[in-house]
Amino acid sequence: MLDPRKLRLLRELARRGTITAVAEAVTFTPSAVSQHLGALEREAGVPLLERTGRTVTLTPAGRLLVEHADAVLEQLERASAALAAVKGGPAGALRIGAFPTAARVLLPPALAELAGAHPRLEPMVSEIDPADVSAALRAGELDVALVHEYDFVPPVTDASIETEPLFSEPMYLTDRPSIAAARADAWITGKPGTLCHTMAIRACQAAGFEPRVRHHIDDFDTVLAFAAAGQGVALVPHLAATTPPNGVTLTRLDLSRRTLAAFRRGNSAHPAIKAAVASFRTATAALPL
């Protein structure tokens, strides 16, 4: 019988590439991860890993097992959700991930609704960039998360994660009538590796130039303060631009940012996830969009 916990480790190895990265993600030691994967090989009866020095790759059998692991783990999520529904209403810890704008604007009213409707539920919020959400959900660090996707940045596809769309908002450019008109300007973008940074770079590339990035800042309030101080131009979403500081003009662009709720595939019927997504939708309805 194949152990689902070990299947999760094999799946993480397929995605992360190294034993060390898997260990960091699941808070195991590398030695423990190696031992669990070795035990999985014995359970499977065929080699799943090829080891060359410190490098570990999956064998064809290992890759085949990973393909089945997603379906197996999805069914386990469905079973867990069904059992939770039998127990009654949502209760216990609910680990929520959110990007900063959503944490500031959307979560406070959503959490207030959750507290009133489901007092036995204990939401626990962590700020996280959407680029890191899939890994955190797979590792069990989060149960549900608010993520976003931009034009010019295809959504990160992960067979183990499903999403529900919540709302879309327009993007604005500070102090210039168009992206092309900001060709010679210094730019303020998110940190490299974030979706916000990738979106800004690709939007400029689509306008025919590589931006000269001066500042890397993730918090949009700070971005707008820097723009007001003449430190560069930036792309900001609607929810971050409702009250711009004095001296900053905003041009609405034909670009958008879409916010979604994300959770492990098979978990959509879990009472706590359903309650969280319902509270997100209620809070979304009141947003100044």
UniProtKB/TrEMBL annotation:
InterPro entries the UniProt entry points to: LysR_HTH_N, LysR_subst-bd, WH-like_DNA-bd_sf, WH_DNA-bd_sf
One Pfam family this sequence matches: HTH_1
Coiled-coil intervals, chain numbering: none
SUPFAM superfamilies, per the entry: Periplasmic binding protein-like II, Winged helix' DNA-binding domain
Record domain HTH lysR-type: where: 2-59
Assigned protein family: Belongs to the LysR transcriptional regulatory family.
Protein name: LysR substrate-binding domain-containing protein
